[in-house]
């Protein structure tokens, strides 16, 4: 069994699909991406999302002004950082009462002290599978991301035994979130 995070929600109907499937976390992308949403959109989505689903703000280079806004309005409770590791930034974000997920690549050493660690590829959100053979388990709860789908997630859980599995492209059809794929992915994660 692994917990699930569905990332890159862009429409109110995506929020409805996530409420129905009920993963543990949902992600809003603030990084430069076709999935990027604004802070007011994320605030609106948060009000429609079930209370017990944790929300995550996804950044490459953290924008502290946006992060302060997100913390103040309680729009997210976790910040996911794909960029360079920097302990000063991690500490600043934690001081706002938010948790931090540091993304690293297979084979890379963790040099910061985040709350969670995520293994993802060099091109986040591209649906590319990562090299599972180079994953070392840190002390923190670990997320596996990169190219997961409803079809391969059970195999990934069996191989790596991550605490969380994370998906964006793998639950889309024609670049939009697909409610049936979101349900199947979440079920497979919870049963895996
Ligand atoms: O989804 C994006 O566009 C994105 C942009 C910038 C940083 C991260 C992004 N997404 C993250 O990528 C992983 C894996 O995505 P995929 O399943 O391989 O498509 C996921 O954690 C998203 O949070």
- Uncertain runs are none
What percentage of amino acids are in beta strands? 15-25%
The profile of the biggest β sheet is: 8 strands, parallel, barrel
Determine the structural class based on helices, strands and strand pairing: alpha/beta
Instruction: Please identify which CATH superfamily we are dealing with.
Output: Aldolase class I
Query: What's the CATH topology label?
Result: TIM Barrel
Q: How many helical stretches?
A: 6
Give me a quick take on this structure.
With 192 residues, the protein is α/β, with parallel strands linked by helices. The chain has helices at 12-21, 39-48, 64-72, 87-95, 153-160, 179-191, and strands at residues 3-7, 25-29, 54-59, 78-81, 99-104, 116-119, 142-144, 164-167, 172-173, 176-177.
């Amino acid at each position: 069994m692994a917990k699930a995070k569905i990332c890159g929600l862009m429409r109110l109907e995506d929020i409805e699909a996530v409420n129905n499937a009920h993963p543990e976390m949902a992600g809003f992308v603030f990084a430069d991406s076709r999935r990027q949403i604004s802070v007011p959109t994320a605030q609106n989505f948060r009000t429609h999302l079930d209370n017990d689903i944790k929300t995550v703000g996804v950044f490459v280079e953290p924008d502290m002004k946006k992060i302060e806004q997100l913390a103040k309005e309680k729009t997210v409770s976790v910040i996911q950082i794909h960029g360079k590791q920097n302990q000063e930034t991690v500490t600043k974000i934690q001081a706002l009462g938010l948790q931090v997920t540091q993304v690293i690549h297979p084979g890379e050493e963790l040099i910061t002290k985040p709350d969670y660690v995520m293994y993802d590829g060099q091109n986040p959100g591209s649906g590319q599978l990562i090299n599972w053979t180079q994953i070392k388990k840190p002390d923190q709860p670990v997320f596996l991301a990169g190219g997961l789908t409803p079809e391969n997630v059970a195999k990934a859980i069996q191989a790596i035994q991550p605490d969380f599995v994370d998906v964006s492209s793998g639950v889309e059809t024609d670049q939009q979130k697909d409610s049936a794929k979101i349900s199947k992915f979440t079920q497979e994660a919870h049963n895996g």
